[in-house]
């Protein structure tokens, strides 16, 4: 049931019951058996969620189909280990603190999601909470807890329902039932009501707190075929498509956004194309944010690349540049290539290996003066840019908000995923970044999905896949500084601390003597 909870199926409500069979299977189960049940559950669930990996590797990485499936299963088996560890924790908690230990199981789930976010470069793709990206009247708690708080609630509800079913089973078998787990059910109901009340209050009070200052942003979706993107013969055609779509936005936009690696060349090395871009920015009367590789050199003159976003002003001056800081393993670089993995090459075609950028860089520009919407003289507006894969890392995006961003931009090239569920899954995660920081998001993707999300997670526009399109929207700019944007993953690390204390207490607790044996007391 797990793959059905995420795009493209989008049956998000199913997540609230999808883990019930797993918890029922753990009843009266040994730890070893629980681990393997969890691993199998994770393997099956993540294989359904991430089947798009095969598309990326076979179509664009030219990896043979059997090897692609083997790599997919290896990846999902690794992700399944996290579910296996969670299942062990459930069984252990039932043994350690009978009846009440199960209350802490969601803390272990959240701790494992946090570990998955950072361990081995991190792969927090489709955390359980992301399944609720359409449930705006529940997920506003993410402005305090991040997406992890929503995952916590989902696991808690599944646990409570499973415990209720275990309690009811003896009725149908003619046995006397155990004591009703009313404490767990009551706690779950109270937390769900509180989450709903808080989310409702945030959305109700939105009109009072919503910023009055806004800007108009245009995003360009050129739909360049990945197979010809870096082909020199198609370079002029690619740029003409950008020219045509940018022209469709007119001159009312304050900022034009192109996708990741929009230019099929290194911008700083192509003077003729630079002049073209300056002319287009001048015609649009707005700066253009565009993705392009940046070439740099080590002290020994060896070259390396940065995956960069340039903010090009209407006067031809580069107003700022952000360099992608979290690269895609095996896509933009090979981890441990100089030692263990020297025999591997990248799974996707490109123009070379990349290096990570220095950190979150805030870009700024001055929007156009208007008679309404911008009282007084226009002031510089600050924003942050997340490039592709970076948007799935909550704390990375949070750092832009903490550094003063007033809205956020995501540029990506999801052409690698083909017509799979990955582009929709990728776009869904943008909703949580908006809710966590209460900042609007503008997203430009090469083949889709491009669009806009408001500060409270509403999807304002979303383009179809594989269609040339230019979208325009007016988005608010402000600096709300939510609890999450200010303090980060306090909730998730709180869960980690609780789990650590439980494990520490469990390891030092004196074992009770087995009935029928005599405890030996030292003289």
Quick tags:
globular; 6-stranded mixed beta sheet; 14% strand; 43% helix; alpha/beta; single chain; 2 domains; Nitrilase/N-carbamoyl-D-aminoacid amidohydrolase; 12 strands; 17 helices; disordered C terminus; 523 residues
Oligomer: single chain
Unreliable spans: 336-351, 371-377, 512-523
Strand order of the largest sheet: 5-4-3-2-1-12
Query: What does the largest sheet look like?
Result: 6 strands, mixed
Text of the CATH class of the largest domain:
Alpha Beta
* CATH architecture annotation of the largest domain: 4-Layer Sandwich
Q: How much helicity do the residues have?
A: 40-55%
What is the H-and-E element order?
HHHHHHHHHHHEHEHEEEEEHEHEEEEHH
End-to-end CA span: 59 Å
How many helices does DSSP assign?
17
- SS class: alpha/beta
Query: At the third CATH level, what is the topology name of the largest domain?
Result: Nitrilase/N-carbamoyl-D-aminoacid amidohydrolase
Commentary on this structure:
- The chain has a 6-stranded mixed sheet. A 6-stranded mixed sheet has the order 6-7-8-9-10-11, covered by helices on one side.
- The protein has helices at residues 15-18, 20-25, 31-49, 52-60, 65-96, 105-118, 136-139, 142-145, 147-173, 182-204, 206-209, 235-248, 271-284, 394-402, 422-437, 483-487, 490-508; strands at residues 214-221, 255-257, 288-297, 303-312, 318-323, 363-365, 381-387, 407-412, 441-445, 451-453, 459-462, 469-476.
- Helix 14 (394-402) runs parallel beside helix 15 (422-437).
- With 523 residues, it is α/β, with parallel strands linked by helices.
- The longest helix has 32 residues, at 65-96.
- The protein is globular and about 75 Å long.
- 43% of the residues are buried.
- Residues 336-351, 371-377 and 512-523 have low confidence and may be disordered.
- The chain has 2 domains: 2-207 and 487-508, no CATH class; 212-477, Carbon-nitrogen hydrolase (Nitrilase/N-carbamoyl-D-aminoacid amidohydrolase, 4-Layer Sandwich).
- Helices cover 43% and strands 14% of the residues.
- The chain starts with 14 loop residues before the first helix and ends in a 15-residue tail after the last helix.
- It is built from 17 helices and 12 strands.
């Amino acid at each position: 049931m797990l793959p059905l909870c995420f795009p493209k199926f989008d049956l998000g409500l199913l997540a609230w019951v999808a883990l019930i069979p797993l918890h029922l299977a753990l009843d009266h189960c040994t730890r070893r058996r629980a681990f393997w049940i969890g691993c199998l559950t994770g393997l099956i669930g993540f294989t359904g969620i991430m089947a798009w990996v095969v598309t990326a590797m076979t179509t664009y990485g030219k990896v043979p189909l059997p090897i692609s499936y083997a790599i997919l299963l290896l990846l999902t088996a690794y992700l399944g280990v996290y579910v296996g560890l969670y299942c062990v924790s459930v069984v252990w908690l039932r043994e350690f603190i009978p009846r009440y230990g199960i209350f802490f199981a969601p803390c272990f789930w959240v701790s494992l999601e946090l570990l998955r976010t950072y361990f081995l470069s991190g792969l927090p793709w489709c955390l359980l909470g992301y399944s609720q990206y359409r449930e705006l009247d529940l997920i506003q708690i993410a402005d305090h807890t991040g997406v992890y708080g929503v995952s916590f609630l989902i696991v808690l509800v599944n646990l409570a329902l499973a415990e209720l079913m275990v309690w009811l089973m003896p009725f149908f078998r003619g046995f006397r039932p155990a004591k009703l787990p009313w404490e767990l059910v009551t706690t779950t109901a109270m937390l769900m009501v509180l989450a709903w009340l808080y989310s409702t209050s945030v959305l109700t009070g939105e009109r009072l707190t919503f910023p009055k200052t806004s800007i108009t942003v245009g995003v360009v979706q050129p739909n360049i075929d990945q197979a010809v993107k870096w082909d020199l013969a198609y370079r002029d055609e690619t740029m003409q498509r950008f020219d045509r779509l940018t022209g469709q936005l007119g001159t009312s936009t304050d900022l034009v956004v192109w996708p990741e690696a929009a230019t099929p060349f290194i911008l700083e090395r192509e003077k003729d194309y630079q002049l073209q871009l300056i002319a287009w920015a001048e015609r649009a009367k707005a700066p253009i944010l565009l993705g392009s590789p940046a070439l740099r050199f080590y002290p020994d003159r060896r070259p390396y690349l940065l995956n960069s976003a340039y903010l090009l002003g209407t006067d031809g001056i580069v107003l700022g540049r952000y360099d992608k800081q979290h690269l895609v393993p095996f896509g933009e670089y090979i981890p441990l290539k100089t030692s263990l993995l020297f025999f591997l090459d990248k799974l996707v075609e490109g123009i070379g290996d990349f290096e990570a950028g220095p950190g979150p860089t805030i870009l700024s520009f001055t929007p156009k003066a208007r008679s309404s919407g911008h009282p007084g003289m226009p002031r510089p507006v600050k924003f942050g840019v997340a490039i592709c894969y970076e948007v799935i890392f909550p704390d990375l995006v949070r750092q832009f908000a903490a550094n003063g961003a007033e809205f956020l931009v995501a540029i990506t090239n999801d052409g690698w995923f083909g017509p799979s569920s990955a582009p929709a899954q990728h776009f869904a995660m943008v909703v949580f970044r908006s809710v966590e920081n209460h900042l609007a998001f503008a997203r430009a993707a090469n083949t889709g999905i491009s669009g806009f999300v408001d500060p409270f997670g509403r999807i304002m526009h979303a383009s179809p896949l594989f269609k040339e399109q230019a979208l325009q929207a007016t988005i608010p700019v402000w600096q709300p500084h939510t609890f999450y944007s200010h303090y980060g993953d306090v909730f998730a690390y709180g869960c980690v601390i609780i789990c650590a204390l439980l494990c520490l207490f469990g390891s030092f607790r004196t074992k009770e003597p087995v009935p029928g044996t005599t405890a030996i007391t030292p003289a």
